[in-house]
Amino acid sequence: MKWIRYEHGFRSIHQGMAITVMFFLYAFIYMQVWLAACFAAVFAMLAFQNIYFSKVGQGLSVKFRAKQKRILIGDGEELVLEFENGTVPIWNGTLTLSLEDAVAPSSDNKKHYSGIYDLTVPFAIGGNKKTEIRIPLEGKKRGLSRVTRVMLEIPHLFGDGFVNMELNEPIYYQSLVYPKVTPLGRELKSSPYKPGETEQKQSLFMDAFQPIGTRDYIPTDRFDQIHWTASARMQKLQTKEFLPVSSQSVVLIMNAIEKDRGFLDFEKKLERLVSYADYCMKNDIPYSVAINIRSFGGKPYLLLPSGSGKVQFQKVMVMLAKISDKHAKLPYEEMLWHLESHGELPQTVVLITHENNRVKALAKQWQKRYEVILDNSHERNERIWDNQQKETGTDSTYLNV
């Protein structure tokens, strides 16, 4: 394993060795046996230190037990590092890990504005030995946390100085901290104007594979809908009745551009989007997600294709954990026009955005063809919504599918 070494204090060791040699020769010439022995002992001590620190850390390797962890805000995880050393032992060292501050020790309640958290732990390992270091961490905020740097500081045994070793290899470890999951507080109704699989009391479409009974025949009924067995039993014509169904598919479109002077506007919109996704998952409603963050590929914005169930919810949470308000963004109206022109809109459209006259005008136009929900509850009813936030039954078992 490759390490970059930074050595401090070796010049003073070399100077001390040269001075002790001079005083040893002076004492030896003048027959000062005890004085010469003292200088010889000091020289041996400095020489041992010089040899030790020139070889310490050779053969040291580190391995992260897990490559990726998925947790919710407030949940704990354990970062496990496995070290294997060469022939030279390491004493009284200090290990420093630099983490992106989505996770931090649970006892740390301070705000870190740099985005990086430096965690230090004592470190020691014998020659040709293995050791394991476990660091308990807690999810502090939504986001992606990676280990950006691993450094080991080994102080000199005698006098000032130290050796710094920095890991010079890629670190394949990251923690995904998912956003909060809060109840939606409303229902999404299916569309009666498109055929589908969702049961609805009033619909223009019937599911021919789900008969629910019979009724008296009327002249407008089709011939193939007559139930002949029931007609013979009732001595009059009976028509089959089927379960009325309709289409219930949703697209969640979030505006990643923050409102002017909107504190945590981006994070609140994400939490609102997760509330809709959680509702769709629990009611088995197919849904897709679109966010106006620039992306490479066929679409210039982030688009998660339609899906349902726990697998789709886990995909949404992973995507939301990896995005940031610092990413490049596309104008919201441009993304809406692109979705409409490419036929990406289902019957129910949820627009999660702040107040915008152009968006309101477009939503009013879409209401002639779609069921449009313009959701700006994160800013209009901000205090009420914040007070009603309670964690649902969704936990990390849904997120590790």
TrEMBL record:
<keyword id="KW-0812">Transmembrane</keyword>
<feature type="transmembrane region" description="Helical">
    <location>
        <begin position="21"/>
        <end position="48"/>
    </location>
</feature>
<dbReference type="InterPro" id="IPR002881">
    <property type="entry name" value="DUF58"/>
</dbReference>
<dbReference type="Pfam" id="PF01882">
    <property type="entry name" value="DUF58"/>
</dbReference>
<protein>
    <submittedName>
        <fullName>DUF58 domain-containing protein</fullName>
    </submittedName>
</protein>
<keyword id="KW-0472">Membrane</keyword>
<feature type="domain" description="DUF58">
    <location>
        <begin position="214"/>
        <end position="324"/>
    </location>
</feature>
<keyword id="KW-1133">Transmembrane helix</keyword>
